[in-house]
Structure of Type 1 glutamine amidotransferase domain-containing protein:
Amino acid sequence: MKKVLFVLTNHEDLGDTGMKTGFWIEEFAAPYYLLKDKGIEITLASPKGGQPPIDPKSNEPDFQTPATIRFNDDKETQEILSKTIKLETVNQADFDAVFYPGGHGVVWDLAEDENSIALIEDFYNNNKPVAAVCHAPAIFKNTKNTDGTSLVNGKKVTGFTNGEEEAVQLTSVVPFLVEEMLKSNGGIYTKKADWSPYAVEDGLLITGQNPASSELVAELLLEKLK
């Protein structure tokens, strides 16, 4: 049985706005169920462990999908989610791939988290896929190749677009824009129209543009695990 590690944000404050953030339910639930239903064993981790914060916006009626509806009725998965293991206790040797769901929280904690950075590099250097969707490609801000270059340098990548960030009016709130960071790190950044499903695979890196792309990323990851 293949094993995939999911890493979730613990960050819940949306900058200085007084509003809350966290991870986006669809970006967790769709890949989680797609992989789980195919017999993949999933372990959930976060920097601090315990219950990761859910972005309250992702619970709103407009953002419900079959996967979020399933999650909202799934007490067993909610229970597992409430007990994520601490990132510092995780060893890549125990897993076949790692997946990062997005949500604005990621740009604050996981982009800078030393355990996460080391873990991604470790997965990559051991020839294991690293997948991330929407804001989660923020995890590549500080990851490096063994030669010191950025992990995304010269690689095809995507992630939440400048236009999408502008549409949700958080351009001046987030510490950096995912699209700009990927480009400045040498990534070959591409995108489709805002809010369109879009995912890119380049070697071991699989990235998706936005919440609508979460299932696409999981499908690419599943193919890779075969």
User: Anything to note?
Assistant: The mean pLDDT is 98. The beta strands are 3-7, 41-46, 85-86, 97-100, 130-133, 156-157, 188-189, 199-202, 205-208. DSSP finds eight helices and nine strands in the chain.
